[in-house]
Amino acid sequence: MTIANYIKSDLAVRLHSAEGLPCKLTLDALSQHYGVSMTPVRNAVEELVSAGVIHRLENGRLAPGDSERVAADLLVTPSRPTSKALEEAVRREVIQRSLQQDADFLREQATAEQFATGRTAVRQIFSRLAGAGLLEHVPRRGWRVTPYSEQDTLDYLEVRETLELKALDLSRPHFNREELQQLLQANQPGRGRSPSRLDFDMHDYWIERCENRYIQEFFSRYSVFYNTLFNSAVTDDAVKSAMAQEHCEIVEALLQQDWRGARNALSRHIRDQQNNVSRMIASLQP
User: Are 280 and 232 in contact (CB under 8 A)?
Assistant: First the structure.
């Protein structure tokens, strides 16, 4: 649902019900209420005027029309996506553009209309994605997506493997058996009708406990972009189940204090990330 359709449905429901309008029936007041520019408000109002739900008086002012003329399809209470769902949706859009090497600039207003939200919310999301390395703000032009580079990903995985294995070694004195059991429960490959469970944040467990700020700063600075990329590559339950199985192998080895086994399982798991991304890129090809 676009933001214009959201506004149209919301106004139709309010005019038809006893709830009434949320503000004065002017383009400026509606624009301020919905937190968007005039364009989607004007489009929504024009459609409601054509449908007779809103009347345009001779002096140009707007007035409520015949509430009985509201079409049934407009009487479904619309809903905007939650802030978390919105950010995830925008992040997926950015990742897809990155993988497709899409060089077009993202515009705040166009994105707001695409995801049925306000420009302020989009700007806040873009700023966070820029902090994660997914976007770059270019004054007077918009937001440029960071293009995916296979070589950069391979270089990152090589450094990540070295530092994360070191973090695993340093964290041994701080492992808690009960916490490891919880990690094991959070990562379960699907069996029969049981869905797979996958904890994307499992790696943070030993990174947070390694007590080496240089390792922690590396992951804080660089992992957000690549974690988003890798997590987006979990496109079906088969991949999710395989990753959950790899997580379980790491945690089970830690529970048995099989440090070499845990290191080997973690190493294999990290290297598999590139294969998942490669499959995702192939699926995006026309």
Answer: yes
Where does 83-145 sit in CATH, by number?
1.10.10.10
Q: How confident is the model at residue 18 (pLDDT cuts 50, 70, 90)?
A: low
3-state secondary structure of 19: coil
User: In the CATH scheme, what is the code of domain 3-74?
Assistant: 1.10.10.10
For the chain, the domains span 3-74, 83-145, 150-284
Write out the two tokens for 183: 């990690």
Same fold, 3-74 and 83-145: yes
What tens digit of pLDDT does each residue of 37-81 get? 677 788 888 888 888 888 888 888 888 876 565 555 455 555 555
| Predicted model pTM | 0.63
For CA atoms 81, 85, 88, 89, the dihedral sign is: negative
DSSP string, 139-205: TTTEEEEPPP-HHHHHHHHHHHHHHHHHHHHHTGGG--HHHHHHHHHH-B--BTTBPPB--TTTTHH
Contacts of residue 74, defined as CB under 8 A and 6 or more positions apart, other chains included, come to 8, 9, 12, 13, 16, 51, 53
Just give the CATH number of 150-284.
1.20.120
The answer to whether residue 196 scores a pLDDT higher than 90 is: no
